[in-house]
Write a structure and sequence with these properties.
By secondary structure, the chain is mainly α. It has two domains: 1-81, 5'-nuclease (Rossmann fold); 83-140, no CATH class. Helices cover 57% and strands 11% of the residues. The protein has helices spanning 8-16, 20-34, 44-56, 62-73, 83-96, 100-112, 121-124, and strands spanning 2-5, 38-42, 78-80, 116-117, 131-132. The longest helix is centred in the first third of the chain and has 15 residues, at 20-34. The chain is elongated.
Length: 140
């Protein structure tokens, strides 16, 4: 079966319907994946770019982005690396009102039972992960 790696611009055209001609083409591709004709692979980095564009350019609220992308990454014909981490990160970003990338980093570090080193104390105080400022990281 054919496997194609999706770029964020295809995902964005599909989700936003903008511009119309590209959106039609993206919707046709997604329909083929849903019918099982091909598999569309989505990387974590492409999801992060998609979130960033939906927030910064389209000004969508994080709750809407979470709901839309959670459904998209779980759709038939879509294969995603780290699906559980992505879904958790989308939930954390929306529920805790933090940046998606910070939520993703916290999710990955927490699963590895490791520390996040950051200056961003405001976001990480709200996330379920151990964190430290660079100057206070302890060594074993």
């Amino acid at each position: 079966m054919t496997r194609a790696w999706l770029d964020a611009n295809v995902v964005l055209r599909f989700l936003t319907g903008d511009p119309e001609e590209m959106a039609r083409e993206a919707k046709g591709l997604m329909a083929r994946a849903e019918r099982g004709e091909l598999t569309l692979f989505l990387t974590d980095l492409v999801v992060a770019e998609t979130v960033w564009v939906l927030r910064s350019f389209y000004d969508h609220p994080m709750e809407r982005i979470r709901d839309t992308l959670s459904a998209f990454v779980s759709a038939p014909g879509i294969e995603v690396e780290n699906l559980d981490v992505l879904l958790e990160s989308l939930d954390l970003a929306a529920d805790k009102n933090v940046d998606f990338v910070d939520a993703y980093l916290a999710s990955r570090a927490h699963r590895a039972q490791e520390l996040v080193c950051t200056f961003d104390t405001s976001d990480f105080k709200r996330l379920p992960v151990s964190w430290s400022r660079p100057g206070t990281v302890a060594t074993n």
